[in-house]
Every structure is written in C-alpha cells, then in structure tokens.
Specification:
By secondary structure, this protein is mainly alpha-helical. The protein has one domain (18-82). Helices cover 47% and strands 5% of the residues. The protein has helices at 19-31, 41-49, 53-63, 68-73; strands at 4-5, 17-18.
Length: 83
C-alpha cells in the first residue's frame, strides 16, 4: 500500500506525492555519502520538521525496512551513519 505525503494545508492536493519515495530521497540527501552531504540537507531538515508524528511512525514502522538506500547508509561501515 502506497502512502502519500500531504502538506498541513487542508485543501492542497497539489502537494501529494508518494511518501516512501519522498522520505527515501530526503533521508538520502540528509545522510549524505562518504564525501559528506549536500547543501540541500538543510532543505531536507526543514521538510522533516514539517512531518506529523503519524508520518514518522508510518515511515519507521512500514517503509524503512524496505528502504535499501537509507538502510545501506546506516550500516556501520559507511560514513553517513555518523550523522
């Protein structure tokens, strides 16, 4: 089942996008790679600040286990896990 990310505005359907892929992209940017992280990490942090607790709970309980991009960045042998 695909979940959607919606802005906090009640009638703003134009901001709907696939939630799991959005989170994958934002976490990948925020975590960076072995050379560091992008200036876009600040934007990702602002997106994270706008997420509801329910959205974090959904991602962590339902999506993270299938997110190879983020899980690979969190392995001990990869530099971004330090962040």
């Amino acid at each position: 089942m695909e979940c959607a990310f919606r802005s906090r505005k009640k009638h703003d359907d134009l901001t709907t996008m696939p939630f799991a892929k959005c989170m994958e992209a934002m976490l990948a940017v925020w975590l960076g790679n072995s050379w560091g992280y992008s200036w876009a990490a600040a934007f990702a942090a602002r997106v994270f600040d706008g997420l509801l607790d329910e959205q974090w709970e959904y991602y962590l309980s339902e999506c993270l286990r299938r997110d190879r991009t983020v899980l690979d960045k969190l392995t001990p042998s990869v530099h971004p896990a330090d962040r």
